[in-house]
Amino acid sequence: MTTATATQDTEPAAHVNTRSHNRRRWASARTYIFAGLIVIWCLLPAYWMVVTAFRDVGFTYDPTPFFSHVTLDNFRAAFSTDTGNHLARALANSLIVGIITTLISLMFGIFASYALARLNFRAKYLVLGFILAASMFPGVALVTPLFQLFTDLNWIGTYQALIIPYISFALPLTIYILVSFFREMPWELEEAARIDGCTKTQAFRKIIMPLAAPGVFTTAILAFISSWNEFLIASQLSNQQTQTVTVAIASFTGSQPHQEPYTAVMAAATIVTIPLVIMVLVFQKQIVAGLTAGAVK
Amino acid sequence: MSTEPQSGTDLGSARAGSPQDPAKGGRARKEATQGRAASMLIAPSIVVLTIVIVYPVITAVFQSFQKDSGLDPATGLFVAGGFAGFSNYTHWILQQCTAGGVTVPCPPGTLGAQFWSSVSTTFFFTVVTVIFETAIGFGMAVIMARTFRGRGLLRASVLVPWAIPTAVTAKLWFFIFAFEGIANKMFGTSVLWTGSENPARAGIIIADVWKTTPFMALLILAGLQIIPGDIYEAAKVDGVTAWQRFVHITLPLVKPALLVAILFRTLDALRMYDLPQIMTGGANNTTTLSILVVQEIRSGNFNSASALSTITFILIFLVALIFVKSLGVNAVETTTVSGRGKAK
Fold this sequence. Notes:
The complex is a heterodimer.
Chain A: H1 2-10, H2 14-53, H3 73-79, H4 87-118, H5 124-135, H6 140-152, H7 160-183, H8 188-195, H9 200-228, H10 232-237, H11 245-250, H12 262-282, H13 284-291
Helix pairs in contact in A: 2-12, 3-12, 4-7, 4-9, 5-7, 7-9, 8-9, 9-13
Chain B: H1 4-7, H2 11-16, H3 25-64, E1 70-71, E2 78-79, H4 87-93, E3 96-99, E4 102-105, H5 115-145, H6 151-163, H7 166-176, H8 182-187, H9 197-225, H10 229-237, H11 242-270, H12 274-279, H13 289-298, H14 302-327, H15 337-343
Antiparallel strand pairs in B: 1-2, 3-4
Helix pairs in contact in B: 3-14, 4-14, 5-9, 5-11, 6-9, 7-9, 9-11, 11-14, 13-14
């Protein structure tokens, strides 16, 4: 931008100056128009979800574009267990499954990613290929065997029945993102620590871990989000007791048969989404870095 | 000591450190010592992944060759199961069902008869959504790459659809597309969106595009941002038009990131489940392969469900392979070992 302005200032002829100035103004206006359209397209449906969540059930289909007939009843209805919905329990389940999955993935993933990012060994690309293939693996191919296995073990309705298959996508994701974070770290500091008499383990714990913390944290968020958002496996391998939020929302029932309780569903959806959106917006930079990790390197 | 920082700083030098490298002697020894450490660090993850992925998959493949045990409807005798050959596969691929002890073409309406239609539905969704997401995602990325006031807002808002769980997205768009919903009111239409094939498919595609285009845009944006700005400046000075700059500079330089983004999205779209399952339950020709597998599990036919999930897995694997081989997609530089040599 600064270089562009500089070029413009040094341009000799006045009429060229205004022409290019006009063109630039038009280009910038276009940018704003498109940016506006993108923002509207991305936010409008989410906005509609929130508006509906706060709207009186009698006005479910009211097309008023702003908040109207505001009520908190829908949130009460969303948490109510009268019609067989257990949103609060589902939230707790998702939280527990998500946190344990994330911790286990990190526990194993950190060491693997360190080796993959730092060490040279022959099978490196084979391992990376295997992990990438694992992260592309269709969940449905796990559901069939696991459904039977867990039924035999009487595990349907336990947390491990969800955590074990969740690791199948969370661990590759963790390794994948951590490898690219680790590659960009100032490893010379590790060398310096080694020269100063640290052992390799000490250098890892005292120098590398603190430096790696932001990357690890971002990875944890992404792994947590991926397990929070999972639906296919949860819908097949959980029961009423271990139902996660996505399953709870998908099967949300109202008091009237054949009548979808939209306002309550949207309230539940808002509850499930808002913490996630806040988290994503707060850690926006790191998350984008983590999401695109590896794709461009 | 001096070789240490260089040996593993990034993929570029890691690749240079592969056997073709002239400086081989010391490297080989280094690789051997590092190899021991590496295998100790990596082994736990590999073991875990083997337990959670490889073991179930092998079980599924084994099962897909098993016969259903139970009462033979023709003879009324108990059949113990056993090796079934490829019958569970031909059940799907050749549409062979067993009725009264004989093999007949699967009658319409049964799950078996839906195989090819669900394959075509899956590919239809994949092709259409990926095309839309690539085109729109590219547009979004180009805008996001520009410097202007309010860019932060733009970048924050594209993350919102990405952060919303797919199941919630499905419910949200199901509500938007309800008969009395806002979509019909806004456009003055009275379409029963989930009631017939084309609107139902359109609804699912729109929801999917809304949800996943931001991801695509972010990947492409990351690719755009590594293009040095002075290339454009130089081209501008040389009088190259905007369109030419796009075709001859942007596209070739962003191509690696773009292909990786397309590969990711394609593989993801091929296993699509949440949106059609929640929005239509697979009705009106929106049954994807994943939905069909789950329906087959739900009807208790585990052996044929295993065959179907194996077919799905192989199909996705083949698509990935074709991508990597033909387009030279190089995810993390290294998608697969086989892709590595050829892609260069």
